[in-house]
UniProtKB/TrEMBL annotation:
<dbReference type="InterPro" id="IPR029033">
    <property type="entry name" value="His_PPase_superfam"/>
</dbReference>
<protein>
    <recommendedName>
        <fullName>phosphoglycerate mutase (2,3-diphosphoglycerate-dependent)</fullName>
        <ecNumber>5.4.2.11</ecNumber>
    </recommendedName>
</protein>
<dbReference type="Pfam" id="PF00300">
    <property type="entry name" value="His_Phos_1"/>
</dbReference>
<keyword id="KW-0413">Isomerase</keyword>
<comment type="similarity">
    <text>Belongs to the phosphoglycerate mutase family. BPG-dependent PGAM subfamily.</text>
</comment>
<keyword id="KW-0324">Glycolysis</keyword>
<dbReference type="InterPro" id="IPR013078">
    <property type="entry name" value="His_Pase_superF_clade-1"/>
</dbReference>
<dbReference type="InterPro" id="IPR005952">
    <property type="entry name" value="Phosphogly_mut1"/>
</dbReference>
């Protein structure tokens, strides 16, 4: 049975504002990010969401808590929803990580993982969702790797195409149907 997925990226972090690629570092929401997370909560609290699944990295967990922590919607944290592990490049300037990203589609970042590995890790969550949430609407709060895994699962696009594409943030999030 299928699952309807609402995907939202974590809210704006201090690293986002300063131009750093946080990767597997925890990160922290900026003041504007905390306001974004509160807006997300107002937008999503009566949206029919049965459960929220969030990356366990601080910036995503903080987004989930601010947005929906005061509701009866359960928030579940899963390390598999983390961003790509940029290894030695965690915390590097976003321009550097962005410029070199296609070099790491299949080859792991030094001390980290490849985009293919990150997308597969995130996608390993999807079958588990069906064990309890089939036929329901859930929310995922994550990162670029989460977005790319959802895109690949629903469109079949290649990792290279997904990593090469320019990411366009959507303030209302994304909707997916996983079968």
């Amino acid at each position: 049975m299928a699952i309807d997925v609402v995907f939202e990226t974590h809210a704006l972090s201090e690293d986002n504002e300063r131009g750093f690629a946080t990767g597997w570092l925890p990160g922290r929401l900026s003041e504007r990010g905390r306001a974004n997370a509160a807006d997300m909560g107002r937008r999503r609290r009566d949206d029919g969401i049965a459960a929220v699944f969030s990356s366990d990295l601080r910036r995503a967990a903080e987004t989930a808590e601010i947005a929906l922590g005061d509701t009866s919607i359960p928030i579940l944290y899963d390390w598999r929803l983390r961003e790509c592990d940029f290894g030695e490049h965690n915390g590097a300037p976003s321009t550097q990580v962005g410029r070199d990203r296609l070099n790491y589609c299949d080859t792991p970042y030094p001390g980290g993982e490849s985009h293919t590995q990150a997308i597969a890790r995130v996608a390993s969550v999807f079958p588990d969702l069906a064990t309890r949430w089939a036929g329901r609407r859930i929310m995922l709060i994550g990162h670029m790797a989460t977005y790319r895994a959802l895109e690949q699962a629903t469109t079949g696009r290649t990792v290279h195409d997904l990593v090469a594409a320019t990411f366009e943030w959507q303030p209302e999030g994304w909707e997916y149907h996983l079968s």
